[in-house]
């Protein structure tokens, strides 16, 4: 798959995850946050995260035809994923072990892929 195609797949996955969190914040975040996902404030914050990922995913999809912009958007998305990893690591003692590990693995892989794709798209 070419870099733009891979970036499109990554962006579509981000948008789908964001939509799922927005629609069902408790269900979508319960494995990551455990019992805290049921708290109304946490659901509000989860929806904010969902909107963030939905918008970033759509933005990434809409910019794929412009290599310069697409490269910067991929890097921005990867930065957001990196912050998710760091935040999860910082809070891991209060999170379910498997949820924290899964979030770190998925967000970390997304960050690595995003930074890699950012460089590949810029080079094309």
Number of strands: 0
Taking Cα atoms only, what radius of gyration do you get, to the nearest Å?
15 Å
Strand proportion, as a percent range, falls in under 5%
Q: Residue-averaged pLDDT, rounded?
A: 95
The rounded distance between the terminal residues' Cα atoms is 14 Å
Query: How do the helices and strands follow one another from N- to C-terminus?
Result: HHHHH
Query: Major β-sheet, in short?
Result: none
Number of helices: 5
Global geometry: elongated
Alpha-beta classification? mainly alpha
Number of domains: 1
Summarize it:
The protein is mainly α and 124 residues long. Helix content is 85%, strand content 0%. The chain is built from five helices and no strands.
SSE layout and pairings?
Blueprint lengths: L2 H21 L1 H9 L6 H23 L4 H25 L5 H27 L1
Helix pairs in contact: 1-2, 1-3, 1-5, 2-5, 3-4, 4-5
Q: Can you put this structure into words, describing what you see?
A:
This protein has 124 residues and is mostly helical. It has one domain. The protein contains 5 helices and no strands. The chain has helices at residues 3-23, 25-33, 40-62, 67-91, 97-123. The longest helix has 27 residues, at 97-123. It is elongated. The model has no long low-confidence stretch (mean pLDDT 95).
């Amino acid at each position: 798959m070419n870099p733009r195609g891979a970036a499109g797949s990554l962006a579509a996955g981000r948008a789908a995850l964001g939509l799922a969190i927005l629609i069902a914040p408790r269900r979508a975040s319960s494995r990551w946050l455990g019992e805290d996902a049921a708290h109304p404030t946490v659901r509000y914050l989860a929806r904010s995260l969902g909107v963030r990922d939905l918008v970033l995913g759509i933005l990434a999809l809409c910019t794929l035809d412009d290599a310069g912009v697409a490269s910067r958007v991929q890097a921005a998305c990867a930065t957001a994923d990196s912050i998710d990893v760091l935040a999860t690591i910082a809070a891991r003692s209060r999170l379910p072990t498997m949820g924290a590990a899964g979030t770190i693995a998925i967000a970390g892989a997304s960050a690595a892929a995003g930074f890699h794709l950012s460089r590949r798209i810029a080079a094309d």
